[in-house]
Amino acid sequence: MEELCATKIRDRDGNLHYSLVPTEGTAGNAKPLNGSLDYWVKQFLLKSTCVCNQVILRTHPAAASPLASIVDKENLEGVLGTIAGDNTLLIICRDEAAAQALHTLILSISGME
């Protein structure tokens, strides 16, 4: 399962199942559905907060880790790294401007502007 980058997630009914997140080798062939930042933000983001050089994302249960994986693989400008719990994702950015730009992007994708 690890080689497939399979991650356990909960669906909207609370049921656990595996989801595949594309790797660098498969990213070129991936459809922009289940493996894209757009998909994960639109499906699982509940709230985004920007504090100093950090962006904190609240997600549905079990969705923070797959979203962190997507953020890491996107190689977004100014993002230094992520730390994920069950439903909270901390994104550490290079500086406040990078954090604000990421926060604005995430809000734009989610439609929460």
TrEMBL record:
<dbReference type="GO" id="GO:0006526">
    <property type="term" value="P:L-arginine biosynthetic process"/>
</dbReference>
<keyword id="KW-0963">Cytoplasm</keyword>
<protein>
    <recommendedName>
        <fullName>Arginine repressor</fullName>
    </recommendedName>
</protein>
<dbReference type="GO" id="GO:1900079">
    <property type="term" value="P:regulation of arginine biosynthetic process"/>
</dbReference>
<keyword id="KW-0028">Amino-acid biosynthesis</keyword>
<keyword id="KW-0055">Arginine biosynthesis</keyword>
<comment type="pathway">
    <text>Amino-acid biosynthesis; L-arginine biosynthesis [regulation].</text>
</comment>
<keyword id="KW-0678">Repressor</keyword>
<keyword id="KW-0238">DNA-binding</keyword>
<keyword id="KW-0805">Transcription regulation</keyword>
<dbReference type="GO" id="GO:0034618">
    <property type="term" value="F:arginine binding"/>
</dbReference>
<feature type="domain" description="Arginine repressor C-terminal">
    <location>
        <begin position="42"/>
        <end position="106"/>
    </location>
</feature>
<dbReference type="InterPro" id="IPR001669">
    <property type="entry name" value="Arg_repress"/>
</dbReference>
<dbReference type="InterPro" id="IPR020899">
    <property type="entry name" value="Arg_repress_C"/>
</dbReference>
<dbReference type="GO" id="GO:0003677">
    <property type="term" value="F:DNA binding"/>
</dbReference>
<dbReference type="Pfam" id="PF02863">
    <property type="entry name" value="Arg_repressor_C"/>
</dbReference>
<comment type="similarity">
    <text>Belongs to the ArgR family.</text>
</comment>
<dbReference type="InterPro" id="IPR036251">
    <property type="entry name" value="Arg_repress_C_sf"/>
</dbReference>
<dbReference type="GO" id="GO:0003700">
    <property type="term" value="F:DNA-binding transcription factor activity"/>
</dbReference>
<comment type="function">
    <text>Regulates arginine biosynthesis genes.</text>
</comment>
<dbReference type="GO" id="GO:0051259">
    <property type="term" value="P:protein complex oligomerization"/>
</dbReference>
<keyword id="KW-0804">Transcription</keyword>
<dbReference type="GO" id="GO:0005737">
    <property type="term" value="C:cytoplasm"/>
</dbReference>
